[in-house]
Amino acid sequence: MKSKKVVGFVTSTGGRTGHTAIMARSMGIAAVIGCPDALCGIQPGDAVIVDGKKGLAITNPSETIVREYKEKLFDQKLRQDLSDMNKFKRLRALLRASVFGNLRVMDAIGRVKSLLLLRNDIYEA
User: What's 3's DSSP letter?
Assistant: First the structure.
């Protein structure tokens, strides 16, 4: 599947742990999964807004709705950019930390004034 051409998923069956939902999450795109009436009436060439947060697939939306969703998308992108910038700043601060001892060496524990745990994995809520 060419991921740059896929911008959302809408399915009439499935669930949060199904293959399509997992693919959507891994690709960072919206999905409406397991909505029996979602595909009714959608024709080739129709414009569809996929709102994964609300579980909506809006077929041939009005200009007003398109404008509202474009504004939401811009706001989300701006918040994500700020979040990414904050993560970078925190990482940069961690990388500036100096290592003064190895906690595997038991006698170093008594000399530790503060503890910084460095990990190479980042979990997001």
Answer: T
Nearest to 60 by CA among 41, 88, 85: 41
What Cα–Cα distance (Å) separates residue 97 from each residue in 54, 63, 108? 42, 51, 17
In sequence order, what are the residues at sequence separation of 6 or more whose Cβ sits closer than 8 angstroms to the Cβ of residue 100? Answer: 111, 112
> Is residue 76 classed exposed, middle or buried when 0-12, 13-18 and 19+ CB atoms within 10 A define those classes?
exposed
| Cβ proximity of 32 and 16 under 8 Å | no
Asked if residues 74 and 81 have their Cβ atoms less than 8 Å apart, the reply is no
Segment 54-105, tens digit of pLDDT: 888 888 999 999 999 888 888 888 788 778 777 777 766 666 655 555 555 5
The predicted structure's pLDDT at residue 64: 93
9-25 pLDDT tens trace: 988 888 888 999 999 98
50 sits in which H/E element? strand 48-51
Whole-angstrom distance, CA of residue 54 vs CA of residue 31:
10
